[in-house]
Structures are given as C-alpha cells and as structure tokens.
Amino acid sequence: MGDGLQFLLYLALIGGLVGLSEALHQKGILTQEANRKLVHVGVGLFVSLALFTLHHGWVLAALAGLFVVVNAVGLVSGALRGMHTVDRETWGTVLYPLAVVINTLLLFDHSRTLLLATLAPMFFGDALASLVGQRWPLRRFASLRKSLAGALAMYLVSLVFFWALIPAGPVAVLLLALIPTLLELSFTGGLDNLAVPLGNLVFLSLVPAKVPLTSFAIALLVAGVVAYLALRARALTPDGALVTLVLGTLILAAGGVQWLVPILVFFITSSALTKIFRAKATVKPGESRDGFQVLANGGLAALFVTLQAFGVGGIDWFVPYLAALAVVNSDTWSTEIGSTSRSDPRSILFFKKVPKGSSGAVSWIGSLGGVLGSLAVALTALFFGYAWNTVLLAWGAGMIGNLVDSLLGATVEVRYRCETCGGVFDVKIHCNRPTLYVGGLRWFGNNWVNFVASSVGALGVVLWLAFR
C-alpha cells in the first residue's frame, strides 16, 4: 500500500478512535481520564505500526502535524471536551503529536527501532504510570503531583522497551531507563508528553555511541549529588531538582568538566546572592527555583551541548553556551544586588522612579551587578584555553541580553499592579495581597523573559561565529 493511502487509513483510524472515545465519554461509559488514556495508548499503537509500514518519515510527520493543529484548535475552542478537559491545565494533547513530529523527522531515516524506543515510554509508560499511580500510589509526592508507584511503572515500561529495542548492555539500559522516569516525574501540565520523547532522543542517541557508559554513570551520580544538596539547601524545589539532575547529567556527560564549570558558577553564585539578600529584597524574596525556571535558564545549555556532541553547524557551541549563561547570571546578579539600593529604581522606558522589583526597572547598582554577573561566567573560558576575545564576546552578549530582559519586562511581560505599594510586578501576590492585571501577555512570565533574553544573547554569538 502506498504512503498516500496509508496516510488516509491512519487518519481515519485515529479520527475514529477519538470520535468513539468521545462518544463513550458523552454516554458516561468512560470517565474523562479513561477517555484521555484510551486515546493516548490507542494513538501510540497506531503510530508504532505506522513506523514500520510507511516508506517515508515525512508522511508520519505530516499526519502528526495535522493533529497538532487539530488538537490545539480543539483545546482553545472547547471541542472534544472529554479528551481535553481535565481537573488540571494541560497542553499534553498538543505536545504529544508535536513530539512525534520532531522525533520522526530526526530519526525515521536513521533508525526506526530507535525512534520507537524514544516514543514508546510516552505512548505506554506515561499512561500506565498515571493509572497505576491513581489506583495504587504507594506514596504520593504532593509537590510533584505524582506517586512512587507511577514512577516505578514508568521505569519498568521504559526498561522493557529499551531492553528490546536499543543495542546496549544491561547496565546501560538500567541507567537509561531512569531518564524518561525522571522527566515524567518532573513535568506537569502535559509537558512530560514532550520532555520524555525529547530526552529519550538525546540520551539514547548519545549513550553509548558518543558518550561512554562510564562517563554517563559518573555524570548521573555527580548531577544527583548536586541536585540533592541544592534541594536540601532549598535552592530548588523537588521538580527543579529532578530537572537539574537530567540537565546536569547531559551537560557533564556530553560536555565534561569544561561545560559543567560555567553552569555551576551561575547556579552557585546566583543561589548564594539570593540567600544573602533575601531579607533585603522587597519582591520575590529568594524563592526556590522550580523545574520551569531551571529549564528556562538551562534549556539552551542542554541544546548547545547536544549540538556540540553531534558536531552540528561546524562551530564551537561552547561560546554561545557561555553567552546564554552570562545573560541569566547577569539578570540574577542585577536583580539581587539591585534590591540593596537605598533609592527606588527607574523604568527603563520612561526613567520615572518605580518601586523596587518592578518589571523593567533599572538602577545603577543593579546594572553594576549585571556587569559583574556576566563577567563571572565569561571569565571561566580562560580556564579552558580560550583567549580574552572569547571572554569579551560572552561578556558583551550577557550584558546585551540583560538589557533585552529589562525591555521585555517593561513591555510584553505580564504585569500586575500592587494596590498596596503601587508597584507593577510580574507576580500575582504582593504585599500579601492579590495584585491586579494591568498589561502584557498573560502567558509571558519571567521564565519566558529569561529564555528569550538568553536566546538573543546566544544567537548574537552564533551569528558572529558563523559570519565573522
């Protein structure tokens, strides 16, 4: 059968499954959660079959891409409420097919077996983890909205598929199965539907083909110790510690000590400043970093070390990596040190005085802190044989990114006004009272600001290296 007919066949099968499941839910035969899991597993079975019957990967990617659009429209419009509406906000129905698109485009022509290994824990392990965790939780992790039994179910399913599908020894399989388990534990809101396949894509492609098993095991141990100590020091929330464990393992395993040192400088110094100035700060006083904050600050690091490991682009990705970290360190230092200013800062747009902590606010002492924060990360390049021009490039990119951060905070970042002190912030609670929404994009919070600003700094360095 040609790919065109198969496309229509799988489209009909998946559409029929969704329609049948929705009808059963409307009649009260299936609960919302059962409806979602039936579609989740059923679609996974169809995609697994399609991996080995289709001749071209772009056909499957197009099919999955179609459902990205359909599910997004359904989520926004309220259609197919049985599949989309649950007791928690989730974009999982959109991210599920998006993961299929990404992994298919990258792996279909390389190894369909490996592609199935990256997707199967999401198709089957995630659903089983949810069902087992609800019925026999053993122990609930309230802060993670997950359970020990669910984590064990995810681990066992991942273990079985990895054992059957990837050419690695038993020790490697036992350790690699931890990755989807940790990612499923870390993310809520459906983000695990994307994080698990992408994490599997990276780690299964690297270990043991490009990263020796010993290096992976050592990296996993070291990252685990760092994450645990940060959790005990309350620098990270439980989900933040899990994301740090995965990202730290990747960075150390694929990049070595050279890549680990700059991110440790960022994490240790920024966490220390937050603790030191906690009593003096007037907004967001030293809260622990959660998984989304860790991902916003460290996601680019994971991307760049992966690109370096696979030799993509023919450039030294360590330099834009430094720039991205210089941006987030500059922002953190400017915020924490700026909180000690005796006078109120000024708006970066109108230069009027505003309360401390206001979005888009700058002060001379905070700006000095930003300069030093960017420099602290950039200087680490000297320890690994780089010249001063690399330090200056990363330092400058860090300060430019910090400026972008402030501009975004004053324009598109969500803003709430505190009716007690009159300040405009990016938090819903201030002065122990709910704040009033006054502008900006409601979904564009501080994590997005950090990610975009660090991306701008890193992109500038990439362009410089590519076209110099």
Q: How are the SSEs placed, and which strands pair?
A:
Elements: H1 3-26, H2 32-53, H3 57-77, H4 81-84, H5 92-107, H6 112-135, E1 140-141, E2 146-147, H7 148-165, H8 170-176, H9 178-186, H10 192-206, H11 213-232, H12 238-255, H13 257-276, H14 291-309, H15 318-338, E3 346-347, E4 361-362, H16 364-378, H17 388-411, E5 415-417, E6 424-425, E7 429-430, E8 433-434, E9 436-439, H18 446-467
Antiparallel strand pairs: 1-2, 3-4, 5-6, 5-9, 7-8
What does this molecule look like?
With 468 residues, the protein is mostly helical. The chain has a domain at 276-286 and 304-468. Helices cover 68% and strands 4% of the residues. It has 18 helices and nine strands. It has helices at residues 3-26, 32-53, 57-77, 81-84, 92-107, 112-135, 148-165, 170-176, 178-186, 192-206, 213-232, 238-255, 257-276, 291-309, 318-338, 364-378, 388-411, 446-467; strands at residues 140-141, 146-147, 346-347, 361-362, 415-417, 424-425, 429-430, 433-434, 436-439. The strands form four sheets. It has a three-stranded antiparallel sheet, covered by helices on one side. It has a two-stranded antiparallel sheet with strand order 1-2. It has a two-stranded antiparallel sheet with strand order 3-4. Strand 1 and strand 2 form a beta hairpin. It is globular, with a radius of gyration of 23 Å.
